[in-house]
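ok so i was messing around last nite and threw this chain in just to see what happens. nothing serious, just curious
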Amino acid sequence: MKLYLLIATFIWIRWTFPRTTIYGLLNLSWKILIPLSLVNLLITAGLIKVF
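result:
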């Protein structure tokens, strides 16, 4: 029963989430993660400067 649940969970996860491609990860990096990190850097620098 445990093995059946484990296999069913793996199959469910594989069917639910689409396969990630290199281009999808590059788009995520350039369009979302890098701007967020720059904003985080600016906020942190501003807080350090104020306090």
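not much to say yet. The two ends are 58 Å apart (CA to CA).
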